Amino acid sequence: MVTVLFFRRSFPQSVVSALVILTSWSSCALAAGAPTWVVGDTWTIERPETNSDTVLRVVAVENDVMVITGFQQCPRCRAYLDRHLAPLKLVDEAGTVLSSAPGLFSWGYPSWKYLDWPLEVKKTWRIDADASMNKRVTRFTVDMSVRAHEDIATKAGTFAAFRISREWQSGPWKMSETLW
């Protein structure tokens, strides 16, 4: 069985949806452990508001770290992520470690645990940490909760998936996000 993580962001005037990641787990399990990343794994982020897609590709796996390429903002950069998708570092094509790239969120903040394996309904976790974007450091709080295990229809078919909510806050700024 395949579990699809798909996300929808709620902004004041729009909704953005994107296919993020595919992982596999046992059909009789109530919890899903961390996936095993393999070179060549890909996923597509759909951006309906710009009518464009981004294809992210795993180009290396080093111990428990996945290396991906394909970000629109830095297509030749190599992004290093741990098994919780925490951004460890971003390296440009010359090998320079970047703290961020225009339009990309912070890198080098391993406390940013976007997923907390194993996933199971009613599980909650929080990120309360600094991050930089465009060379400015800001404090963020992100509360995450696995809300349900349900079927979701995608262009690739219908899959069983966990529905995860994320509530972002930084000062007066707030954003809600739902992932499958």
What would you note in describing this structure?
There is one protein chain. The protein has 180 residues and is mainly beta. The protein has one domain. 0% of the residues lie in helices and 59% in strands. It is built from no helices and 14 strands. The chain has strands at residues 2-10, 15-24, 31-32, 42-47, 52-62, 65-69, 78-81, 87-91, 97-98, 119-120, 124-133, 136-154, 157-170, 173-179. A hairpin with a 2-residue loop joins strand 12 and strand 13 (157-170). The chain starts with a strand and ends with a strand.
| Percentage of residues assigned to helices | under 10%
Classify the oligomer: single chain
Report the radius of gyration as a whole number of Å.
Answer: 16 Å
Q: In total, how many beta strands?
A: 14
Structural class: mainly beta
Distance between the termini: 15 Å
Quick synopsis:
This protein is mainly β and 180 residues long. It has strands at residues 2-10, 15-24, 31-32, 42-47, 52-62, 65-69, 78-81, 87-91, 97-98, 119-120, 124-133, 136-154, 157-170, 173-179. The strands form 3 sheets. A 6-stranded antiparallel sheet has the order 2-1-14-13-12-11, with no helix packed on it.
